[in-house]
TrEMBL record, chain A:
InterPro entries, per database record: ChsH2_C, ChsH2_Znr, NA-bd_OB-fold, Thioester_dehydratase-like
Pfam families hit by this protein: OB_ChsH2_C, zf-ChsH2
Coiled coil: none
Lineage: Bacteria, Bacillati, Actinomycetota, Actinomycetes, Kitasatosporales
ChsH2 C-terminal OB-fold domain ranges (all copies): 69-133, 231-294
Protein name (record): OB-fold domain-containing protein
Organism: Streptomyces smyrnaeus
Automatic annotation (TrEMBL), chain B:
InterPro entries: Thiolase (IPR002155), Thiolase-like (IPR016039), Thiolase_C_2 (IPR055140)
Domain Thiolase C-terminal residue range list: 254-381
Name listed for the protein in its UniProt record: Thiolase domain-containing protein
Domain of life according to the entry: Bacteria
């Protein structure tokens, strides 16, 4: 990503993606294992209703629910919404209907997809549908590939007690989460990043307390007023405190041990963070004078190295730790 | 700054803690869902208070940021498990301090006579989360943090050591003490039966000056409390812990002049709590402290920040043995965060353990005769602070 001209605020995609594990507990374990075995389980609630999908605790009395029952594989659409442009990770790749389906024998409805190739005009509340099972089932809600239209008559199917016990039950699932953002660092940080492309560090001074913020945030967090006056700081600075990192951090390609330090650039009102190199890690000390070392194409200094100046006196940086 | 809340002050309803429950904290509770986990703590708190779901007027729940487990607004799906259907349910959100803030929101609802009996609960299922990922998203244009959570805090520890000339071994003393205390707490996560000071001191140096044994574990767990008014407490089967003061303060993670070693928000928060509770000399008047110490050196740092030791002398207090279970001011009799860290619940565990002490219900880690105890939590980059002071008698006036 190249820096934009100063009048243009930067922006970039930020994708947050992670596989989360989930322990299921007894009820969800039975429900998902059941789907793997083409069996849909619900649970009997205190008021006699059959809840599908089942819940662990009664929505009325809060009591623990454990009486599992098996319901039908056909059901009735209780409401629906047409999805014209399916997104990644959704049950079908072509347009489909999101439906709430009350399976025969259940008193509540399950959310899923309805494959309706003839389009939304073929979908209506009250229509009969049946489960289309996925070919490969693992014990997940996606074991139901989707629902499809069915010509059965509304059934008087009654929920049948089920022990909820299966061989090799599923006890956990992995839920992939993904969030797509567009991130913009704002005007102040854009100005700061622009200056860094010419290897200059620009802070912004608070008009009230006169502290220079690096990196600038556009406002002084203490005084609550906008900062606008740009002030060049550094390039040299002082190591105000540090630690020696002995374990590799995930996603960081830096050989350990290395020194992670707070560095107060000359003229700055607070320290920023950087890596110290060009000196054995066990000789780094508070007060060490350092300067940035750039690598070609780097947005930030790669690290800081000693300048050879005498160490700074603690009194000069004690409020910049 | 907003008008300080005042628990225990005149005109407010006295708030009593009449039920406390927690799970046995472990690294992974694969046998329960999140709902099952919170349920376990809530059921134990209700049993302690001898109350049922119908006796609860509102539920206040807290946990660390949603990113940790990746469930957006988990409180919605936990309502059934906590008997919250048809009742007010609030979620509190202040990073690592959230367990403390959550308890304070619940206490204020009772103090303000909005509700008579409130169930408050906090949890984390760290085995199903990724705290590191949740805390350090790779934000475009920004320099990545060059160290993990410990690396973030280690420079502050070095700054403390430099500022106070504390000798290197203090951190190890804290870890050795807290891990031994944990052996007396059946709910604690780490039970290191063979712990020795030498083992702590020879454990690997992760983020110099922080060693492996001076860091907190990653736990699955939940903690719940039932808070009620004077009339409710009168019917309680066991003694109540009475809230005499409670306060929250916050400040930015980074600003010019921030004192990360002794943040002003922490000092101000403690001063407010002591003012409400009428405490003039905290070290003399408080019998036990449960403070949020995720890295061992934070004990001496917070001893100073909370006014138990003069500036620069917190480490001397630790070194003297004053904070041991049989010392003059026991700190973290439960084993603390160093022994148990379900992040969202950790703050509430501090508050609950303080309450257990003044109820005389802490079992093998009871501080004999404890009448006043402080529960303390902090979170973010030393950004959020929450504290309460509980006592064995209701506040007067």
């Amino acid at each position: 990503m190249n820096a934009a001209p100063s009048h243009k605020v930067l922006s970039a995609p930020l994708v947050v993606e992670f596989p989360f594990t989930r322990s299921l507990g007894p009820v969800q374990s039975a429900f998902l294992t059941g789907l793997r075995e083409r069996t849909v389980l619900g649970v009997k609630a205190s008021d006699g209703r059959t809840l599908v999908p089942p819940t662990e605790y009664d929505p009325v009395t809060a009591e623990e629910l454990r009486d599992l029952v098996e319901v039908g594989r056909t059901g009735t659409v209780t409401t629906w919404s047409w999805n014209d442009r399916p997104r990644r990770g959704q049950p079908l790749r072509h347009p489909f209907a999101w439906v709430l389906v009350r399976l025969d024998g259940a008193d509540t409805a399950l959310l899923h997809a309805l494959d309706a190739p003839e389009g939304p005009q073929a979908v209506n509340t009250g229509m009969r549908v049946r489960i289309r099972w996925a070919e490969h089932r693992s014990g997940a809600i996606t074991d139901i590939a989707c629902f499809e239209p069915d010509d059965s008559v509304p059934s008087t199917h009654r929920a049948q007690p089920h022990p909820g016990e299966f061989a090799d039950p599923v006890t956990g699932i992995v839920a992939e989460a993904r969030l797509d953002y567009t991130y913009t660092p704002g005007r102040a940080q854009t100005r700061y990043l622009d200056a860094l492309t010419t290897r200059r560090t620009l802070g912004e001074r608070c008009p009230r307390c006169h502290k220079v913020y690096v990196p600038p945030r556009g406002a002084c967090p203490t005084c609550g007023v906008p900062t606008g006056e740009q002030v060049e700081v550094g390039p040299r600075g002082t190591v105000t405190t540090f630690c020696v990192v002995n374990i590799k951090a995930k996603g960081l390609d830096i050989e350990v041990p290395y020194v992670y330090a707070h560095i107060a650039l000359d003229g700055a009102g607070l320290a920023l963070h950087g890596r110290i190199a060009g000196i054995p890690y066990d000789q780094v000390r508070m007060g060490l004078r350092v300067e940035p070392v750039w690598t070609e194409g780097g947005r930030y200094p790669d690290h800081y190295r000693p300048t050879g100046e005498p160490d700074a006196d603690y009194e000069t940086y004690k409020e910049l730790l | 700054m907003s008008t300080p809340t005042s628990l225990g002050g005149s005109g407010k309803e006295p708030v009593g803690v009449v039920g406390i429950g927690q799970t046995k904290h472990v690294s992974a509770r694969r046998d329960v869902s999140m709902a099952g986990l919170v349920r376990e703590a809530a059921v134990r708190a209700l049993a302690d208070a001898e109350l049922g779901w119908a006796d609860i007027d509102a539920v206040v729940i807290g946990k660390a940021p949603d990113f940790f487990e990746g469930v957006m607004m988990p409180e919605l799906y936990l309502a059934d498990a906590l008997g919250a259907v048809g009742k007010p349910m609030l979620r509190v959100h202040t990073a690592g301090s959230v367990g403390g803030s959550t308890a304070l929101v619940a206490a204020n609802l009772v103090a303000a006579r909005v509700h008579r009996t409130v169930l408050t609960l906090a949890f984390e299922k760290q085995s199903e989360s990724n705290a590191m990922w949740g805390l350090s998203l790779p934000v475009p244009f920004q320099q990545p943090l060059l160290a993990g959570a410990g690396g973030f805090f280690a420079p502050h520890v070095r700054a403390y050591m430099h500022r106070t000339s504390a000798p290197d071994h203090i951190g190890a003393l804290v870890a050795y003490k807290d891990r031994r205390n944990a052996l007396k707490n059946p709910y604690a996560h780490l039970h290191e039966e063979d712990i020795t000071l030498e083992k702590v001191r020879s454990s690997p140096m992760l983020w110099d000056p922080i060693r492996y044994s001076e860091t907190c574990p990653s736990s699955d767990g939940a903690c719940a409390m039932v808070l009620t008014d004077r009339a409710g407490a009168a019917h309680a089967p066991r003694p109540a812990a009475w809230v005499h003061g409670g306060a929250m303060r916050s400040e930015p993670t980074l600003f010019a002049g921030k004192d990360a070693v002794s943040p002003r928000a922490g000092r101000d928060c403690a001063a407010d709590v002591y003012r409400q509770a009428g405490i003039g000399e905290p070290r003399r008047e408080i019998d036990a402290v449960e403070m949020y110490v995720p890295f061992s050196w934070y004990e001496p740092m917070w001893l100073e920040n909370l006014g138990f030791a003069k500036e620069g002398e917190g480490w001397k207090m630790t070194e003297s043995g004053a904070t041991e279970l049989d010392g003059e001011l026991p700190v973290n009799p439960s084993g603390g965060v160093l022994s148990t860290n379900p992040i969202g619940a950790s703050g509430m565990l501090r508050f609950a353990e303080a309450a257990l002490q003044v109820r005389g219900a802490a079992g093998a880690h009871q501080v004999p005769g404890a009448r006043r105890a402080l529960g303390h939590a902090y979170g973010g980059g030393s950004q959020f602070f929450a504290m309460w002071l509980v006592a064995d008698e209701p506040p007067t006036g």
